[in-house]
Amino acid sequence: MKKLGWGVLLSIFFLSQEVSAQCAMCRATLETEDGGVKAEAVNDGIVYLMIFPYLLVGLAMYFSYKVYKNKRNTKS
Length: 76
Prior knowledge:
- The chain is mostly helical.
- It has 3 helices and no strands.
- The protein has helices spanning about 1-15, 25-30, 35-75.
- The radius of gyration is 19 Å and the shape is elongated.
C-alpha cells in the first residue's frame, strides 16, 4: 500500500502536463494586454492555488487512515 501511494505521488509530479486555468473575467481582462506576460503570471498563480485543496484532502485522508489503523491494532 505504501509503495502504491508513493508511486501515485511521483507519477503526478513527473507525468504532469502544462495546463491553462483561467476564469472568464481574468481571460477577458488579460487578453487585451500585449505580450501575454501578465496573463501567464495569473495563470501560474491559479494553478499554484489549486494545489492546496488537494494537499489538504490528501493530508486528511492520511491522518484518518493512521487513526483507523491505530484503533484497529489496539482492538486486536
